[in-house]
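ENTRY TYPE: paired fold submission
RECORD: A
CONTENT: sequence, then structure tokens
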Amino acid sequence: MAIDLVIFDCDGVLVDSEPISTRVGTAALRRLGWTIDEAEYAERFVGCTNEYWAEQVGETPPGWREQLIAEHKAAMMAELRAIEGVEAAMDQLTVPACVASNGRHTTIRRSLELTGLAKWFDGRVFSAEDVARGKPAPDLFLHAADTMGVPPERCVVVEDSPFGVTAAMSAGMRCLAYAGGFTPAGRLAGLGATLFHDPAALPRLITSLG
């Protein structure tokens, strides 16, 4: 069946934000007294919703969250880049595309603007803020497909986290899982997605699905 819509995750798929978020988040939790390293942080939190993160962290001292938000924003402003190969892929993509991310709209918009990717997704950005449940529930992907007027079976999701792959599978969509980035391939294998390592190959891979 032909693909009529490509739904991209943002963090780790379009923008190389996950190493930055993991470094900043791990340091912040260690200030709370957590004994956690970056590998454990990535396994527990990469790809999750803000609500899930807050639920897991629990109560924090006054000003702690504000400090973390400021540190995270500063690091992103200074270091954020597009994933290598994504711009080439977007230039060649012939299928309509949108973004569906567990991040907040303000964060997604800032990431796309900082990296020069916003021009490909104007008016086609969806956030977990738009639905009752973010990933790993299918709600966000189903909402994006419905808004774009495409049935789930004619969508392909491009993801890089187990949360996102699980959501795509639950939504009845095909999924390409980026295994050449921050998330180890072993954590993506066996979830039902097709793994790939080169974002520049996405147009060819998407065409092959149809």
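RECORD: B
CONTENT: sequence, then structure tokens
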Amino acid sequence: MNWDDMRVFLAVARAESLTGAGKTLRLDAATIGRRIARLEARLGAELFVKSPQGYVLSSVGEELLPAAEAAEAALAVPLAGGQGQAGLSGTVRIGAPDGCANYLLPQVCAAIRADNPDLDIQILALPRVVNLSKREADLAITVSPPDAGRLLVQKITDYHLHLAMRADLTPPDDLAKARDHAVVGYIPDMIFDKELDYLGLLGRGRVQMASNSVAVQLHMLRQGGIGFVHDFALPFAPELRIVLKDDISLKRAFYLVRHEQDRRSDRLGRLVEALSAGLRAEVARLEAEAAAHCF
């Protein structure tokens, strides 16, 4: 296979459809279909199982995928210009849960961009795990380390959460009284990671105000009720205060995930270092500010 063949193969494998691959490659679906058919004829094997629902890799396609991805990584245009420590350039997409994407990454990425004006950064905020195998992003930040796939995983930092409510409301004296307030939290059947299942600690099965978005939950708490808030988000909501800090406190962690074949990529290695250091510093800074947000 030449690189053009691999490029078409990878696009269809990730999009699982000719139309989706066509959008990536800026080719029409019919052209993509003909290219895949010719490729399969040359290889003498079907690379995809086709159905009205889309294209799914066959066993032969699954075997071919790692080699195609390795070739893609080897041929990728380096993010850093030249061989030295020149400024970073190009485009990098970072996938992250929306709490991190809303309250941490904008500041961290702005600082990185200030030192690397030729670098373009895209933040993909999703209330689910980012799919790196389909190249939805170059890097992903997660709240638990993935246990499958050819991935490099490193812990970035711990972060904390506490119960919070509006400062003009009477705070509960204990957890039992906290249950008398309307609860704000995740939509129960849309919790995409066990590390986000906080409300069981309150002994409440009912969530009166729910969203799959951390940012929306924060705005809900501004209207009333009680719920868990990331300490690093509290400086963005000055009307909220931590309650029952001595009774309940949660600690979670962020992990940075990338493809194993990117291990030797200087461009991503340098960005990972800057991103990790920036996130650690920003979490520490905002959590220090949040210490003033307590009853």
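NOTES ON RECORD B: Residues 76-84 have pLDDT under 50 and may be disordered. The CA atoms of residues 176 and 202 lie 8 Å apart.
STATUS: closed
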